[in-house]
Amino acid sequence: MTEQANAFSAKCDGCGAGTGPLMKLSMGRDFFGRAYDRLSPSADQSPKWYCESCSMHKNLQRDFRDIKAEFDKLSSGQSSDLSGPEQLQRAQLRLREISTILGQSGSKLLNAADVSALLGRLQTQAAATAG
Ligand SMILES: [Zn+2]
Question: How far apart, in whole angstroms, are the C-alpha atoms of residue 58 and residue 72?
Fold first, then answer.
């Protein structure tokens, strides 16, 4: 078996679809501009493959998790990438965007209620900061 054959026999790690082009989640920058390698560890021994739809949802899930992690830090008084009003504003916009996309298509990877809850917490925080 060639490597290419292996790639073509792969199934989507998100929904299990075996048809259509699969994309390996690429390295890049996360929502906060940090080098991103959490889903494909440095050695890349078990790369994940996603169909187009799951690949998009995986990005939403990634941003949601990052924003939630930073907001949790902020809430507990640690230094956080969400400590400034601009960052909070930007995170709210992104969560709204994620929420809209989930409302249109749904996702197996991300719960729309979780996104709404986090957005609510950010709005409360932003209001407190502005006041
Ligand atoms: Zn999929």
Answer: 21
